[in-house]
TrEMBL record:
Keyword Cytoplasm: no
Record GO terms (molecular function): peptidyl-prolyl cis-trans isomerase activity
Keyword Isomerase in annotation: yes
Pfam families xrefs: Rhodanese, Rotamase_3
Record InterPro entries: PPIase_dom_sf, PPIase_PpiC, PpiC/parvulin_rotamase, Rhodanese-like_dom, Rhodanese-like_dom_sf
Native source species: Linum tenue
Name of the protein in question: Peptidyl-prolyl cis-trans isomerase
């Protein structure tokens, strides 16, 4: 359920001060605690992304079945899927799927009791849902996918040095935390690609076999001008193909997104990144720029 949540005192003022400014998308997430753990003064990512966290971001004009995008559920709260981890020492930047429980600074004894209960087999998420003072308790303490530079230093250090699935504790300016790394993955990448650079790649048959090409324009636009090998996923039909995107496409493959002028495709590219697609490229200027700067045989409209 998505609803406004008030952060318990004394952290409310901190959350208000760190709340990201308005962005072009509406972002639906009850992971409000993410903002209160961010570094003081840190600039928010373009679409509250890091997402590559499990934040559902889409243009306000699109309606869809939000329940279709939920993580696998057990009664009461969402639960993450355990994913395979990249090899350590690979030199690749990591993102961590984190859940935590937060208590006040003076409640360290309570934290010790929680650690004992976890050692006896209780679940951190269940305890967070009942006892945490962080609004993320509504999600069983789930903060989503995070990467270095996005959390306060003490929390970040504890998270990025913690063994997978082991519950550890740390202290920040907000109180005492128990945190657990549920999974890790390589950091997702979103880049712009210029029409001339894309054209060079587009002429290589091997390139076409190794990547995924998406055109998010509407069918009437595609009828006016198109490029071969692109799969058409109209943005207005997002509610139809969005829930099945990770089965329709491979998140591990390079994915290129195109529209008319590059704006709708950028929206979709950022959303794909938030869904775990590892390397996403937006065609700058869209098919119009491609036609006017690279291939004049492609019609303009």
């Amino acid at each position: 359920m998505l609803r406004a949540t008030r952060l318990p005192s004394p952290a409310a003022a901190t959350v208000s001060a760190l709340r990201p400014s308005l962005v072009p998308f509406q972002t639906f997430s009850s992971l409000h605690c993410y903002s209160h753990l961010r570094k003081l003064g840190a600039s928010p990512p373009p679409l509250l992304n890091p997402l590559c966290r499990r934040t559902l971001t889409y243009p306000p004009s699109l309606a869809y079945n939000r329940a279709s995008f939920s993580m696998p559920m057990v009664p009461g709260r969402p639960r993450p899927i355990a994913l395979s981890s990249p090899a350590s020492g690979s030199g690749v930047e990591r993102e961590l799927l984190v859940q935590h429980l937060l208590v006040k600074e003076g409640d360290e004894n309570l934290l010790v009791d929680f650690q004992r209960r976890i050692a006896r087999g209780e679940d951190l998420g269940d305890l967070a849902a009942e006892y945490s003072i962080c609004p993320s308790k509504q999600e069983g303490g789930l903060l989503g996918w995070v990467k270095r530079g996005q959390m306060v230093p003490e929390f970040e250090e504890a998270a990025f040095t913690a063994p997978l699935n082991k519950v550890v504790r740390c202290k920040t300016q907000f109180g005492w935390h128990l945190l657990q790394i549920l999974s890790e993955r390589e950091e997702c990448v979103l880049r712009e690609i210029q029409p001339k650079d894309f054209h060079v790649k587009f002429q290589d048959p091997e390139f076409l076999e190794e990547v995924q090409l998406i055109d998010v324009r509407e069918p009437d636009e595609v009828a006016k001008a198109s490029l071969p090998s692109f799969e058409v996923l109209p943005l207005r039909q997002f509610g139809t193909w969005g829930p099945e995107i990770t089965t329709k496409l491979d998140p591990q493959k390079d994915t290129y997104v195109m529209c008319h002028h590059g704006m709708r495709s950028l929206q979709v590219a950022k959303w794909l990144q938030s869904q775990g697609f590892q390397r996403v490229y937006n065609l700058t200027g869209g098919i119009h720029a491609y036609a006017t700067t690279v291939d004049p045989t492609v019609p303009t409209y």
